[in-house]
Hints:
Elements: E1 29-35, H1 44-52, E2 57-63, E3 80-81, H2 83-89, H3 98-105, E4 108-114, H4 116-124, H5 130-136, E5 144-148, H6 152-155, H7 158-169, E6 173-174, E7 178-181, E8 187-191, H8 195-208
Parallel strand pairs: 1-2, 1-4, 2-3, 4-5, 5-6
Antiparallel strand pairs: 7-8
Amino acid sequence: MEPAPTRLPGPGAPTPHTEPGEPSEERKFRVLVGVTGSVAALKLPLLVSGLLEVPGLEVAVVTTERAKHFYSPRDIAVTLYSDADEWEMWKQRSDPVLHIELRRWADLMLVAPLDANTLGKVASGLCDNLLTCVIRAWDRSKPLLFCPAMNTAMWEHPITAQQVDQLKAFGYIEIPCVAKKLVCGDQGLGAMAEVETIVDKVREILSQLGGSQHS
Protein backbone atom coordinates (compact mmCIF):
# COMPACT_ATOMS: atom_id res chain seq x y z
CA MET A 1 0.00 0.00 0.00
CA GLU A 2 1.30 3.45 -0.91
CA PRO A 3 2.21 5.85 1.88
CA ALA A 4 -0.40 8.40 2.92
CA PRO A 5 0.27 11.96 1.86
CA THR A 6 1.35 14.59 4.32
CA ARG A 7 -1.10 17.31 5.30
CA LEU A 8 -2.47 18.78 2.09
CA PRO A 9 -2.49 22.51 1.30
CA GLY A 10 -5.76 24.26 0.53
CA PRO A 11 -8.65 22.75 2.47
CA GLY A 12 -6.32 20.64 4.61
CA ALA A 13 -6.03 16.92 5.21
CA PRO A 14 -9.16 14.82 5.82
CA THR A 15 -10.07 14.83 9.50
CA PRO A 16 -9.84 11.46 11.28
CA HIS A 17 -12.97 10.14 12.93
CA THR A 18 -12.17 8.53 16.26
CA GLU A 19 -14.73 6.72 18.39
CA PRO A 20 -14.76 7.45 22.15
CA GLY A 21 -12.15 5.31 23.86
CA GLU A 22 -10.57 4.23 20.59
CA PRO A 23 -6.75 4.39 20.49
CA SER A 24 -5.78 7.43 18.42
CA GLU A 25 -2.69 5.68 17.06
CA GLU A 26 -4.71 2.85 15.52
CA ARG A 27 -4.49 2.72 11.72
CA LYS A 28 -7.73 4.03 10.26
CA PHE A 29 -9.44 2.85 7.10
CA ARG A 30 -9.75 5.74 4.68
CA VAL A 31 -12.80 6.17 2.45
CA LEU A 32 -12.92 8.77 -0.32
CA VAL A 33 -16.47 9.62 -1.40
CA GLY A 34 -17.02 11.02 -4.89
CA VAL A 35 -20.25 12.91 -5.54
CA THR A 36 -21.58 13.95 -8.96
CA GLY A 37 -24.40 16.09 -10.33
CA SER A 38 -27.37 13.82 -9.77
CA VAL A 39 -30.24 14.97 -7.59
CA ALA A 40 -29.31 12.02 -5.35
CA ALA A 41 -26.41 14.22 -4.19
CA LEU A 42 -29.03 15.60 -1.81
CA LYS A 43 -28.24 12.54 0.30
CA LEU A 44 -24.52 13.32 0.66
CA PRO A 45 -24.81 14.66 4.25
CA LEU A 46 -26.75 11.55 5.27
CA LEU A 47 -24.25 9.26 3.53
CA VAL A 48 -21.25 10.91 5.19
CA SER A 49 -22.95 10.70 8.58
CA GLY A 50 -23.68 7.01 8.03
CA LEU A 51 -20.07 6.27 7.11
CA LEU A 52 -18.78 8.14 10.15
CA GLU A 53 -20.82 5.81 12.34
CA VAL A 54 -18.56 2.95 11.22
CA PRO A 55 -15.80 2.76 13.87
CA GLY A 56 -12.30 3.55 12.66
CA LEU A 57 -13.29 5.21 9.37
CA GLU A 58 -11.74 8.38 8.03
CA VAL A 59 -13.82 10.03 5.32
CA ALA A 60 -13.17 12.75 2.77
CA VAL A 61 -15.29 13.93 -0.15
CA VAL A 62 -14.45 14.90 -3.73
CA THR A 63 -17.24 16.80 -5.48
CA THR A 64 -17.92 17.84 -9.05
CA GLU A 65 -19.02 21.42 -9.57
CA ARG A 66 -22.55 20.43 -10.62
CA ALA A 67 -23.02 18.29 -7.51
CA LYS A 68 -22.65 21.42 -5.37
CA HIS A 69 -26.11 22.48 -6.54
CA PHE A 70 -27.74 19.80 -4.39
CA TYR A 71 -26.16 20.17 -0.95
CA SER A 72 -24.61 22.76 1.34
CA PRO A 73 -20.94 22.36 2.28
CA ARG A 74 -21.94 23.42 5.81
CA ASP A 75 -23.80 20.10 6.11
CA ILE A 76 -20.71 18.01 5.28
CA ALA A 77 -18.83 17.03 8.42
CA VAL A 78 -15.55 16.11 6.68
CA THR A 79 -13.05 17.74 4.34
CA LEU A 80 -14.55 18.56 0.96
CA TYR A 81 -12.35 18.85 -2.15
CA SER A 82 -13.33 20.37 -5.49
CA ASP A 83 -11.67 21.35 -8.76
CA ALA A 84 -10.35 24.66 -7.44
CA ASP A 85 -8.33 22.84 -4.78
CA GLU A 86 -6.46 20.87 -7.45
CA TRP A 87 -5.35 24.00 -9.29
CA GLU A 88 -4.64 26.08 -6.18
CA MET A 89 -2.38 23.37 -4.78
CA TRP A 90 -0.03 23.06 -7.76
CA LYS A 91 2.17 26.08 -8.50
CA GLN A 92 5.48 24.52 -9.53
CA ARG A 93 7.17 21.19 -10.28
CA SER A 94 7.85 20.26 -6.65
CA ASP A 95 4.24 20.79 -5.52
CA PRO A 96 1.94 17.81 -4.83
CA VAL A 97 -0.79 16.90 -7.32
CA LEU A 98 -4.07 16.60 -5.44
CA HIS A 99 -5.67 13.78 -7.41
CA ILE A 100 -2.53 11.67 -6.91
CA GLU A 101 -2.33 12.54 -3.21
CA LEU A 102 -5.97 11.52 -2.70
CA ARG A 103 -5.43 8.34 -4.68
CA ARG A 104 -2.61 7.44 -2.32
CA TRP A 105 -4.51 8.49 0.81
CA ALA A 106 -7.66 6.43 0.26
CA ASP A 107 -8.07 2.71 0.94
CA LEU A 108 -11.49 2.60 -0.74
CA MET A 109 -13.35 4.90 -3.10
CA LEU A 110 -17.12 5.24 -3.19
CA VAL A 111 -18.80 7.23 -5.96
CA ALA A 112 -22.34 7.99 -4.83
CA PRO A 113 -24.21 9.13 -6.77
CA LEU A 114 -22.61 8.40 -10.13
CA ASP A 115 -24.62 10.35 -12.69
CA ALA A 116 -24.99 9.49 -16.39
CA ASN A 117 -22.46 12.10 -17.50
CA THR A 118 -19.67 10.96 -15.17
CA LEU A 119 -20.49 7.31 -15.89
CA GLY A 120 -19.83 8.01 -19.56
CA LYS A 121 -16.60 9.84 -18.76
CA VAL A 122 -15.23 7.08 -16.55
CA ALA A 123 -16.17 4.33 -19.03
CA SER A 124 -14.36 6.24 -21.78
CA GLY A 125 -11.34 7.16 -19.67
CA LEU A 126 -12.00 10.89 -19.72
CA CYS A 127 -10.63 12.89 -16.79
CA ASP A 128 -11.53 16.57 -16.98
CA ASN A 129 -12.09 17.34 -13.30
CA LEU A 130 -10.66 16.38 -9.91
CA LEU A 131 -13.02 13.45 -9.37
CA THR A 132 -12.49 11.82 -12.76
CA CYS A 133 -8.73 12.33 -12.43
CA VAL A 134 -8.75 10.46 -9.11
CA ILE A 135 -10.74 7.64 -10.71
CA ARG A 136 -8.47 7.48 -13.77
CA ALA A 137 -5.42 7.27 -11.50
CA TRP A 138 -7.07 4.83 -9.06
CA ASP A 139 -5.05 1.87 -7.81
CA ARG A 140 -7.22 -1.02 -9.00
CA SER A 141 -5.90 -3.26 -6.24
CA LYS A 142 -8.09 -1.17 -3.94
CA PRO A 143 -11.91 -1.34 -4.00
CA LEU A 144 -13.89 1.23 -5.96
CA LEU A 145 -17.65 1.16 -5.46
CA PHE A 146 -20.09 3.08 -7.65
CA CYS A 147 -23.78 3.86 -7.24
CA PRO A 148 -25.51 4.81 -10.51
CA ALA A 149 -28.30 7.38 -10.29
CA MET A 150 -30.23 8.90 -13.18
CA ASN A 151 -33.66 9.30 -14.74
CA THR A 152 -35.32 6.04 -15.81
CA ALA A 153 -35.21 7.00 -19.49
CA MET A 154 -31.48 7.61 -19.21
CA TRP A 155 -30.97 4.37 -17.29
CA GLU A 156 -32.82 2.38 -19.98
CA HIS A 157 -30.72 3.79 -22.83
CA PRO A 158 -28.61 0.94 -24.32
CA ILE A 159 -25.35 2.82 -23.74
CA THR A 160 -25.89 2.77 -19.97
CA ALA A 161 -25.64 -1.02 -19.67
CA GLN A 162 -22.50 -0.98 -21.83
CA GLN A 163 -20.88 1.66 -19.68
CA VAL A 164 -21.78 -0.07 -16.40
CA ASP A 165 -20.33 -3.29 -17.79
CA GLN A 166 -17.14 -1.42 -18.71
CA LEU A 167 -16.73 -0.17 -15.15
CA LYS A 168 -17.22 -3.71 -13.89
CA ALA A 169 -14.57 -4.89 -16.36
CA PHE A 170 -12.19 -2.40 -14.72
CA GLY A 171 -12.83 -4.28 -11.47
CA TYR A 172 -15.15 -1.68 -9.95
CA ILE A 173 -18.10 -2.83 -7.84
CA GLU A 174 -21.64 -1.72 -8.68
CA ILE A 175 -24.17 -0.99 -5.96
CA PRO A 176 -27.25 -1.26 -8.18
CA CYS A 177 -29.82 1.48 -8.47
CA VAL A 178 -33.40 0.87 -7.33
CA ALA A 179 -36.90 1.47 -8.64
CA LYS A 180 -38.93 4.23 -6.97
CA LYS A 181 -40.68 7.49 -7.72
CA LEU A 182 -37.97 9.88 -8.85
CA VAL A 183 -37.75 13.56 -7.99
CA CYS A 184 -38.79 14.41 -11.56
CA GLY A 185 -42.05 12.52 -10.96
CA ASP A 186 -41.24 9.46 -13.07
CA GLN A 187 -41.64 6.01 -11.55
CA GLY A 188 -39.03 3.40 -12.40
CA LEU A 189 -35.47 2.14 -12.13
CA GLY A 190 -32.64 4.63 -11.82
CA ALA A 191 -32.68 5.92 -8.25
CA MET A 192 -29.51 5.62 -6.19
CA ALA A 193 -29.43 2.74 -3.72
CA GLU A 194 -30.55 3.61 -0.22
CA VAL A 195 -27.89 5.11 2.05
CA GLU A 196 -28.21 2.20 4.48
CA THR A 197 -27.55 -0.25 1.63
CA ILE A 198 -24.46 1.69 0.58
CA VAL A 199 -23.03 1.88 4.10
CA ASP A 200 -23.70 -1.84 4.60
CA LYS A 201 -21.78 -2.59 1.40
CA VAL A 202 -18.81 -0.57 2.65
CA ARG A 203 -18.92 -2.57 5.89
CA GLU A 204 -18.99 -5.80 3.86
CA ILE A 205 -15.93 -4.76 1.85
CA LEU A 206 -14.11 -3.84 5.06
CA SER A 207 -14.87 -7.30 6.41
CA GLN A 208 -13.60 -8.93 3.22
CA LEU A 209 -10.38 -6.95 3.49
CA GLY A 210 -9.85 -8.33 6.96
CA GLY A 211 -10.95 -5.20 8.75
CA SER A 212 -13.28 -7.09 11.10
CA GLN A 213 -12.71 -4.45 13.74
CA HIS A 214 -14.55 -2.00 11.51
CA SER A 215 -17.63 -4.15 10.85
